[in-house]
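Input set for joint prediction.
Command: fold jointly, output tokens.
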Amino acid sequence: MNAMNCEKVQTLFDDLSENRLDPETAARVRQHLADCTDCRVLEQRAARLQRLLALKRYERPSPEYRDGFLSEFHQRLAAETQRTPWWERAVGRIDSLLVAGTVQVWRYGLASAMGVAVVVGVMWMSVRQPDIADNITGQTASTNPSVVLANSQTVFPPSGSPDVVTTSLAATATLQAESGDYQATPTGGMDLVPAATRADDTVPRYVLDRITPASYEVSSYHF
Amino acid sequence: MKLKETTNLDGRMAERTGTPVPATPPVTEGEIDLQHEEDEALVRRTQKGDQSAFDVLVGRYKDRLYATVYHMTSNHEDTNDLVQDTFIKAYKSLRGFRGQSSFYTWVYRIAVNRTINFIKRRKTRNQYSLDDLDNAIQTDPDLVELMSHVTPRREVGLTELQQKLNEAMQQLSEAHRTVVTMHDIQGMTHVDIARVMKCSEGTVRSRLFYARQQLQGLLSDYL
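tokens >
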């Protein structure tokens, strides 16, 4: 039988007192306690402490607690229910109408259906949006100045960044045209019309011309 | 078996709202039958909207939960509030209770977690309010042995001993206090404590070890 060290024995005090050790281990622990005074004192103090703490089991709540608990619970629950949002109460009511066994199925089914609806909605919007934009661009090209802006990439200098900016602005303008309330809006303070298109100051008059430039990124162009 | 007719939960709540709640009504024949129902059956009835079934569960476990929470807070009012909150939380969450553990384990875990959170949030330590002691403590062999033990404080009175025990418990961290409450006062096993606290059995043993070391220092006069 191997001897046990003190640290190991001290972790087994509870198991020994509650008879949860196998006979061989219990015998080794008892042997160690018989041989080691320090561990024996510690074990006695631990047992005494446990018995002392266990006296707290005799503490009892007051009779008022017992008598009034249920009515207080009802009051608090009623107040809590009033604070609950109406939709949450509605879900609870529907839940209570269902038999207990299908509650989880119903809830998971609803959650799944909502998830599928969101995914389908997003897919539908992503497919539909370019079609709408194309249609509106074709229908309003002759009347809406935003479409002129969208087509103005051809007169831009060959550098890369303005093209990108113009394209995104064109998309913004197109979306505004789609909503039917097109108007001049601040677009980062840049006048994006190149000098070559300013030969004629009359038409077309781009609404973005009036926006004060605020970025050095387009400083190579004429304002 | 004759059972009390179920009542619509929201209807019952609406009746209570804003009106003084009478004391617990006299027990009817149906409620007497509910008292003999198993927890699982009462849970199912509550899930279907029968609040009187939940009232039986409240009556069945309020004292046990009170004891657990009181050992951790040492204060009547806090304990009452926490136990009430626990049952309200349990009632509102009962739709999601799937019976993977017993109702008591589930509600016990709610109570412990809420109490730990409460202790963490509490900035200042509250005044202790001592519970009544059951008269049976006078004949407890451990108390008799303690009183007859030769210590410098052998003349200690029960109230003083109770106060010292509560003060010592409040010196512990919330995690240490919880394991001491569960193991040394309520007699739960390491495995069950680990399950409730969602930690390893080794962690439970370690916390117990350090908590007892601290308690032995605090209660050395009585050991």
